[in-house]
Amino acid sequence: MPARSAATGNKTLLVRNADVLVTMDGERREIRGGGLYCVNGRIAQVGPTAQLPPTADEVLDMTGHIVIPGLVNTHHHMYQSLTRAVPAAQDAELFGWLKTLYPIWSRITPEMIEISTQTAMAELMLSGCTTSSDHLYLYPNGCTLDDSIDAARRIGMRFHAARGSMSVGESAGGLPPDSLVEREADILDDSQRLIDAYHDPGRFSMTRLVLAPCSPFSVSRELMRDSAALARECGVSLHTHLAENVNDIAYSREKFGMTPTEYVEDLGWVGPDVWHAHCVQLDDEGVYLFARTGTGVAHCPCSNMRLASGIAPVRKMRDAGVSVGLGVDGSASNDGAHLLGEARQAMLLQRVGFGPAAMSAREALEIATLGGAKVLGRDDIGALAVDMAADVVAFDLGAIEFAGALHDPVAALVFCAPPKVATSVINGRVVVRDGRVTTVDLPVVLERHNAFARQLLVR
Ligand SMILES: [Zn+2]
């Protein structure tokens, strides 16, 4: 085995002969016959294959493939993979959907969190995603965020673990049942514990913590404020759901006497360290506020369509300079979690709302990579360039989905039906090879997952 330096233990990886390599670098280069060379999970060279070192510890020949930066998922609730297509929640809007599912979710166990997180991550990895956030906001029966973080480490996904929370139950005018809310002091103590135990702020970090009260309709104003203060003291990001649909807006006006825009501005929930999910009903003041303050948005088109929440003004946000990334959202409101497919839906949905020129395929791909990286506050993922993380995925251009579109394989990725990846590399490690996840025994995970799902629904 050549090219490993015995002296330093450097592990090298060579990706070569891609039909086209999409860099998403400053010049948006698309390199025919391209490749890249990585050392210890960091990209050292990118360019035509002939200009790269001839070999490495691991060599991936990508002849017949398109290679792109790993996609970034900015919003998810992975435990919901256990409750897809639940009959009573199939045709409801947000609040009715939540009230149907809360009692089922109240039976979730730590093992269920771990297995559903592995299932969700495997599905995301097979769809081209290499970095994901997950927003876990209910902790019944001894569940903790450690269960999610353990799962991410086992499967090898780059992970932003959002410590969600709910503190205002039904009896206090909130939406969730009282049995699913926590004491605010406990939430803050556990947040501090998790940051101390796991948060790695450095470049190429595989685990970061995020503080994420679930939504304005399930936590108090005080918890929003205290979470922001703690996050800023510890240097971690903030995340929540905002302005998801018209009922959400009505709740905000009635309960706080403010629009969601006014509410987050009043609480200090704006800035480059904050991103909000959905923002379907964000008003113009909100768009300009977010642009001015560097506040990010997780756009979740499938979920917005599934729950009939509306069409987020992504064209307007992008034109104003708002950072927008994609999110598949929880698996109970987007019963598929294909991130490349989500880019396709983002493009199509903007066109439904704002005309055929509202979003191009290449812009959708940019939102799915660079956009997501910016929203998560990272400068080391989202592009294939020197000194970026070796998070790389490849799709087989011989797949039936691309037949007839090979004159523009980059556009084909977004226009055509989304296939699964052939290869995925995260942090320099091959986690999908020949279309199979290498890090967990997926059939065994799925069998356990489906047994848990049955157990939750049958009771
Ligand atoms: Zn969500």
End-to-end distance: 55 Å
Radius of gyration from the CA trace?
Answer: 21 Å
Spans where pLDDT lies below 50 across 5 or more residues: 1-7
Largest sheet: 9 strands, mixed
Q: On the 0-100 scale, what is the average pLDDT?
A: 96
Query: Share of helix among residues?
Result: 25-40%
- Regarding quaternary structure, what we see is single chain
- Mass-distribution shape: globular
Count of DSSP-assigned helices: 14
How many E-type strands?
17
Bound molecules: zinc ion
Q: What would you call the structural class?
A: alpha/beta
Instruction: Tell me what portion of residues adopts beta-strand conformation.
Output: 15-25%
Enzyme class: hydrolase
GO molecular function, one term: deaminase activity
Protein name: 8-oxoguanine deaminase
Keywords: Hydrolase, Metal-binding, Zinc
How would you characterize the overall build of this protein?
There is one protein chain. The protein has helices spanning 94-105, 110-126, 145-155, 184-198, 221-234, 246-256, 260-267, 284-293, 301-306, 314-320, 339-354, 361-375, 409-415, 442-458; strands at 12-22, 30-39, 42-48, 58-61, 65-69, 71-73, 129-136, 158-165, 207-213, 237-242, 274-278, 296-299, 323-326, 392-396, 423-426, 429-433, 436-437. The chain has 459 residues and is of the alpha/beta class. The strands form 2 sheets. Strands 1, 2, 3, 4, 5, 14, 15, 16 and 17 form a 9-stranded mixed beta sheet that branches. Strands 6-7-8-9-10-11-12-13 form an 8-stranded parallel beta sheet. Helices cover 36% and strands 21% of the residues. The model is unreliable at 1-7 (pLDDT under 50). The longest helix has 17 residues, at 110-126. α2 (110-126) packs parallel to α3 (145-155) and α2 (110-126) packs across α14. Residues 75, 77, 241, 277, 329-330 line the site of zinc ion.
